[in-house]
Amino acid sequence: MKKISNIISTLLNIPLRGAWGLFFLLASLSIAADGIYKPWDNGKLIVSENSKFLVHENGTPFFWLGNTAWLLPERLNREEAEFYLDAERKAGYNVEQIQVLNAIPTFNIYGYAANNAEFDFSKVSKNGVYGYWEHLDYIVDVAERNGIYIAMDCIWGSMIPQMDVKKGEALGKFLAERYKDKPNIIWMIGGDIMGDKSPEIWDAMANAIKKIDPDHLMTFHPRGRTTSARWFNDRDWLDFNMFQSGHRRYGQRNGDGDYTIKENTEEDNWRYVDLSWEKSPIRPVLDGEPSYEDIPQGLHDLQAPRWMDYDVRRYAYWSVFAGSFGHTYGHNSIMQFIRPGLLASYGAETPWWDAIKDPGYNQMKYLKWLILSLPFTDRIPDQSVIASQNGERYDRIIATRGNDYLLVYNYSGKPMSIDLSKISGSKKNVWWMNPSDGSLTYLGEFDSKVTEFSYDAAYLRGSDRVLIAIDTVKDYISTTATQLTEKH
Fold it and tell me: What would the pLDDT profile of 101-118 be if each residue is shown by its tens digit?
């Protein structure tokens, strides 16, 4: 009751807007009382003992299923933020990656500025005024009620020419003091920028935050086709690495300059996990910005083909099976919260409230459910599971396993030979999982040997499947199950 009364008090002290306001006030009360899973109830997030995953203090696994909600603080009002974050929770997302500041100054939908050119934060809030930071506080609280973390990108990288060390420290100190006691905060330094651009400012900002708030995890969001491990892997403030595999298709360079991958491997996001783990010490890693659903391939040619649901699935499964501890999805319309009357970037046309109905958006949760159905921290990438000759590009098969289970992602639909002896047990239960709907097809019990598997589907374009094999003495998934079920 105390929690509900606190929410009522908070909501009644901000202006509500007509019928929408009343609707979301009532919705907030039911959300607070309906037992929504709050991951931080298991303690704060920490790095696992093997340095490859995130878990809670009590050992509960955390699978990061993020969304790039970059302009959420700037473009959504209170009622829309309520609606959006409720939809995110229902679709399985548990992290929202936002830009706290995307310009100098940054304004929100109510016309209030977050900052001035001097970064004097003593002048940006006024008593009795629901300004920029009060609105961001509200968004953080709504996310908390929905069991969602806010990954705060402090200031977008394109603003770094207007910054200096003093301003970086001021921003870090202000943010840390304001949000250090919120349970659902993750810090992101950088913002679509190479780490060698003014690293002293990023270091100053990160260290200012960590000095005040050592309990929330921190990463760096880098430029496309790069990983934060390239520049910051040795920093004390870095808890996990993030890479941005980006929006290019195979063979597209478009004047991007130096990046650490071979020509014609642009879509192979699994390579960035390998690149990150080449550094010492090993840190957890994930793809924080892959190709977005419904964005032109390569971004800038609006007549180019759009990335589709099967593309975003491929990026997700390739990255996680290569060893990532989670994954971030993105949508062209959602990341900029496009609506009629707003000037769109990258050819976005669908209003964001319709984009949340798109197939890829609603398919990401099945990956989270699958990974959380199985032992979490003993999972490793293991390409030796694949006994047949592997392919390149879209024909690449990728495998991950624990001690008593294995998973193989096949994007193109080509037959494959799998070594079932790589996990424990003389017999294995085997399923096909369809990542587009989470459906399961039980294939039966198989001997522990190299076995060929194939399925009846057209080559490429939506034909992807996951092969699941589990030691028969384990009951992680029922042999009678026809559908994955929700896991936190």
Answer: 999 999 999 999 998 888
Compute and round to an integer the Cα radius of gyration of the chain: 22
Contacts of 128-131 with CB under 8 Å at 24 or more apart are: 130/14, 130/15
Q: Is the pLDDT of residue 12 over 90?
A: no
319-344 per-position pLDDT tens digit: 999 999 999 999 999 999 999 999 99
Separation between Cα atoms, residue 55 and residue 461, nearest integer Å = 35
- Report how far apart the first and last C-alpha atoms of the chain are (Å, whole number): 25
CA atoms within 13 A on the CB side of 83: 14
CA distances from 311 to 20, 290, 394, 461, 462 (A): 36, 10, 10, 8, 9
Closest CA to 188 of 133, 269, 242: 242
Cα–Cα distances (Å) from 66 to 5, 329, 364, 408, 419, in that order, read 30, 6, 9, 23, 33
How many residues are listed for the chain in this entry? 488
**Which residue type does 199 have?**
P
pLDDT at 201: 97
C-beta separation of 313 from 327 below 8 A = no
pLDDT at 488: 80
Report the candidate in 138, 295, 153 with the shortest Cα–Cα distance to residue 219: 153
Taking the CA of residue 191 as centre, how many other CA atoms within 13 Å lie in the half-sphere pointing to its CB?
26
Average pLDDT score over residue span 301-319: 95
Give the mean pLDDT of the chain: 91
Report pLDDT for 468.
98
